[in-house]
Amino acid sequence: MRMFKLVVAAMLVAGACSARAEVITYDFSASVAQISNREGDESFDETVIKGMSVGIGNTVHGRFSYDTSAPVWGGEGDYWKVYLNVGALSAKFDNGPTIGDRPEPYTTLLDTSNNYPVGPGHWLDSFTFSSYTSSPGEYLYVQLVDLTGKTFSNSAIPEQLTLDEFFQRNFYYYMNVGADEVHVRAEITSLERVAAVPEPETYGMLLGGLSVLAAVARRRRQV
Q1: Are residues 170 and 81 in the same domain?
Q2: Nearest-angstrom CA–CA distance, 43 and 34
Q3: Which of 72, 113, 148, 151 gives 20 to 30 Å between its CA and that of 162?
Q4: What global pTM score does this model have?
Q5: Which pLDDT tens digit goes with each residue over 154-173?
């Protein structure tokens, strides 16, 4: 009985240690709602990205992931925090190009706000996950905004995102090639959390514990 308790205790401690850091992944779909130039004073029905056509109404599917254990990199007070290089973001237009997949490293930023003051008697909660690289410039980000300031309880990295709780739900893509720059805004229509896959260390811990328990059971039968 004593051996059994020791094994269970060791497994619980190891499980608690591995649970401290969690990488959360979401899949999303969005519909292209606006295509414009850099200044935003000229709109288009379609554009060309990486040699492929993208137009109004096209669907884009994407995925982003972030580590909830990432340290705070910047921000302001308790109502706005910024985290640097916390994960990854990429997307693909239906029958169109994949974006966020260049071989060079991307810089990712995650900033969250809770009850951020935007005017007398007005606050907002927001979640913005961005990824960008340069030469040529490529910038994509997911932005969720709640104008009531009631979605989050604090400005820590959220472990749960529910699309219906946000008033503004957009995916943005900017591409800058020389003097040309195109801006694409797509309205997010679905957001689904991807089930976490246990890491190899977790399986190893489980199998190790089961092996010890099996050995204890054999010993009892022999006695």
Answers
A1: yes
A2: 7
A3: 72
A4: 0.78
A5: 999 999 999 999 999 999 99
